[in-house]
Amino acid sequence: MISIYILTYNEELDISACIESAMISDDVIVVDSCSSDRTVEVAKRYPVRVVEHAFESHGLQRTWMLENITPKYDWVYILEADERMTPELFAECLQAKKNPEYIGYYVAERVMFLGKWIRHSTQYPRYQMRLFQHGKVWFSDYGHTEREECDGATSFLKETYPHYTCGKGLSRWIDKHNRYSSDEAQETIKQLKNGKVDWVNLFFGKSEVERRRALKDLSLRLPGRPFIRFIYMYFILGGFLDGGSGFAWCTLQAFYEYLILLKAWEIRNLPVPNLDDKPLTGVSQSK
Q1: Could you tell me which residues come within 8 angstroms of residue 38 by beta carbon, excluding any fewer than 6 positions away?
Q2: DSSP string spanning 144-194?
Q3: Beta-carbon neighbour count of residue 142 at 10 Å?
Q4: Quick one: which of 73, 15, 210 has its CA closest to 129?
Q5: Which pLDDT tens digit goes with each residue over 112-166?
Q6: Please, what is the Cα angle at 81 between 77 and 82, to 5 degrees?
Q7: pLDDT in tens, 194-207
Q8: Does the model's pTM come out above 0.85?
Q9: Checking DSSP bridges between strand 116-117 and strand 145-150, what pairing results, if any?
Q10: Distance of alpha carbon 65 from its chain centroid, rounded?
């Protein structure tokens, strides 16, 4: 058996389906970032552990979770509320953890958007570290998301999981990516100043993860990033084969890239004034 962590924040619409898919395990732990909706109330209806912890960042939240919430089993799987565990994936997890060569496994997502699997323009199969031996994997921040730090060899699973990225509607998707773009703008500035492109991994990386991350580092340095991203996703990756949903996905991703550029420019050129350093005009001050 494996333990399953579920990360949540204001997920009252998705949490039931997510928990029910995960209850194929007898140790499900919901880690909520102090939601303001009914997420915790709904989660407590199920025979699962529910723990609340204020969110700081994706990397820090995962690291806090792994350090402070002891799982029942040695191997753990991380789910987010808009994702689902499947019986086929769970069965492969149970088999994979028996292999003593590896301490963790990457799993590919199937992005579901506007009722359709966006197979082509999402770089499928696009892998994330999800199954690993507890105490062997940690996470650090990178942009709006996180990157894993592994103490041992890793591999890849064949089964995939569905990711309902727009399950709560376009307004929620746009709000979320507006927040994400702020973190990505900060990361863009940081990488342009201190980072570099790993050309070896870009062309000869041993895995999709290495090649994709090197490609992202390169993309930060390209002019016209929003336009290039649309061309790359829609024409080179074949987003046009995903129909109208694919066109909408590629358009929104290009807009997201444009938001990142605008916010990076804003950070560099329009510093937020410090009101504490300036006296308030037009206000009488008592002696």
Answers
A1: 12
A2: TEEEEEESS-EEEEEEEEEEETTTT-HHHHHHHHHHHHHHHHHHHHHHHHH
A3: 19
A4: 210
A5: 999 999 999 999 999 999 999 999 999 999 888 899 999 999 999 999 999 999 9
A6: 110
A7: 999 999 999 999 99
A8: yes
A9: unpaired
A10: 16
